[in-house]
Amino acid sequence: MPNVLSIFSGGGGIDCGFKKAGYDICLSTDNWKPACDTLEQNHVGRLVVCEDIRKVDYVAELAKIGLSLTDIDVLVGGPPCPAYSKSRFYRTDYKRALDDKNSFTLYEYFRALDEIRPKVFMFENVFGFVYKPHKPAFDLLKERAEEYGYDISFKVVNTANYGVPQTRERFLCVGIRKGEGKPFVIPEETHYNPEKCTKADMETKRPWVTCGQAIGDLDYDLPEDAERQAGAKHKDLLKLIPPGENYLYLTAKRGYPDPKFKWRSRYWSFLLKLSPDRPSWTIQATWSDNMGPFHWKNRYLRINEIKRIQTFDDDYEFTGCFSDQWRQIGNAVPVKMAEVMANAIKEQYFGGE
Model-level pTM? Predict the structure, then answer.
């Protein structure tokens, strides 16, 4: 059973995926107590360290559970992503990307890699990590991997193409220590978009998992007099929008007879409504009154529903207040995506043990 050390663990998306694939999660670390409490409550791994990553002493912490650095086979983690998100795509000072106040998290990932030197590492981030404004960070990843003796493979994946009921794009990079085997082969996609597919897709893959399949059995209505209704002051307009549409449905360009909004005047997720016939769009880390996705029955999604969309088990319990739980789930790597990667790593480098 390969040993895993997880950093920037959050609510446990990557950790749970690797655990499902048969790995031993030896140490998980995060600096946010609700996330650490969640990891401990669900007994995801052997030890949870709740500390600023810059203060974590891997030798000392592993010694608490009778392990040393050489016992760790796999390092996993995704440095928090604000510095590399799509929202900064249009920055003109992109050459200073590594000066961002959060960029230390990237360097801390490399510190862990340098100190531990595991056989394999997996680095995860937002898909914007590959954009030109963040080229210094991307280049640093490649340079440090080469410096420390790793061959890397990377890809921006759409998790819906791997059976997750959510069209969520993530940057995934796997490094293998030189001399330990061939470069990692990214797993083949197993699912396809029914609206954009070939005959070969239909013969070798399965259609995307839809929201109806994922959360349809959890469906229930909110009373009309609920204190807070989805859409806030636009709650009545939300009811006019068909499933799978957003505020753009209510614009002149879309032919709405009594336009309510100007074309592209709001964020794309404004009044966005799920369709039971397709996967969810990305679950954001921050819950909002008017930013979706909302349920196709014009209500907020519930914690147990976004858990399903992020492929956490129903009995996995998140700690903290409602917004804390939402943030942990929204920030997570879908468990199923992590499990797919973990199984591929195990098959290619650990003999499927």
Answer: 0.92
Q: What is the pLDDT of residues 59-111, one digit of tens each?
A: 999 999 999 999 999 999 999 865 544 444 334 444 445 556 668 899 999 99
Query: Shortest CA distance to 244 belongs to which of 270, 205, 276, 288?
Result: 276
Distances (CA, A) of 105 to 161, 171, 270: 29, 16, 31
Alpha carbon separation from 134 to 111, 123, 131, 141 (Å, rounded): 20, 16, 6, 11
pLDDT tens for 111-125 read 999 999 999 999 999
Catalytic residue numbers, as ranges = 81
Cβ-count burial 111-142 (b if 16+ within 10 Å, e if not): bbbeebbbbbbbbbbbbbbbbebbebbbebbe
CB atoms within 10 A of CB 213: 15
Residue 83: phi, psi to the nearest 5? -70, -15
Residue 188's pLDDT band (boundaries 50, 70, 90)? very high
Question: Looking up tokens 């007994």, which residue turns up?
Answer: 43
pLDDT tens-digit readout, 252-264: 999 999 999 999 9
pLDDT of residue 353: 61
Residues 6+ apart with CB under 8 A from 325: 34, 303, 318, 319
